[in-house]
Amino acid sequence: MALVPVRRFDAACGELPAPPPGWPDFEAVMALALAEARAAAVLGETPVGAVLLSADGELLARAGNAPITTNDPTAHAEMRVLRQAAAKVGNYRLPGTILAVTLEPCLMCLGAMIHARVGLLVYGATDPRTGVVDSRLPGPDLPFFNHHFDVVSGIMAGECGGLLRDFFREKRRGGAG
Fold first, then answer.
1. 18 is a domain residue
2. What positions constitute the catalytic site (predicted)?
């Protein structure tokens, strides 16, 4: 099966696309996602945060993980920002949007991004266990999907990964986390 080559950019390599209009760089966008991840951690949720911007840089939605507090297994940060933005604009299709998330998305979130027609995914830390953008599968490159999007990886990866590592270390020690 031949893959569909999507444009991929790695922060560690230094060559990145232009940031969204009105934003100085992708780190500024990821800082908002990290704030949402920290807020999720305070609630005992896995600290993953996401933001969704329109193609012209308008902040459409921001959220952290909430499956535990909402009793909703689909309440990942990515799913929540897609739902919020779709409600805000009155359409489930969100073409050209930029989704920034602190952790490489899972299969469920990848599917939602494809259906929503996200234009660019920006993520921080890789997820070697369940990430399907780069780690476990080349998700956006798979030819049987009807939409493909560009990927920027590794934005503030150390900080994003460190937040998760510290959260789970505290959980193992019996902390409220």
1. no
2. 78
SS3 152: strand
User: 108 lies in a domain?
Assistant: yes
160 is an annotated ligand-binding site residue:
no
- How far apart are the C-alpha atoms of 127 and 5, rounded to whole Å? 21
Q: Which one is catalytic: 36, 45, 78, 104?
A: 78
Amino acid at site 131: G
The CATH number linked to 85 is: 3.40.140.10
Q: Are strands 150-153 and 8-10 parallel, antiparallel or unpaired?
A: parallel
Cβ atoms of residues 38 and 163 within 8 Å: yes
Instruction: List per-residue pLDDT tens for the chain, 177 residues long.
Output: 788 889 999 999 988 999 999 999 999 999 999 999 999 999 999 999 999 999 999 999 999 999 999 999 999 999 999 999 999 999 999 999 999 999 999 999 999 999 999 999 999 999 999 999 999 999 999 999 999 999 999 999 999 999 999 999 998 888 655
Instruction: Answer yes or no: is 13 a known binding residue.
Output: no
The structure's pTM equals 0.95
Provide the domain count of the chain.
Answer: 1
Q: Has residue 1 been placed in a domain?
A: no
109 is in an annotated binding site: yes
- Residue 138: domain span: 23-120+133-147
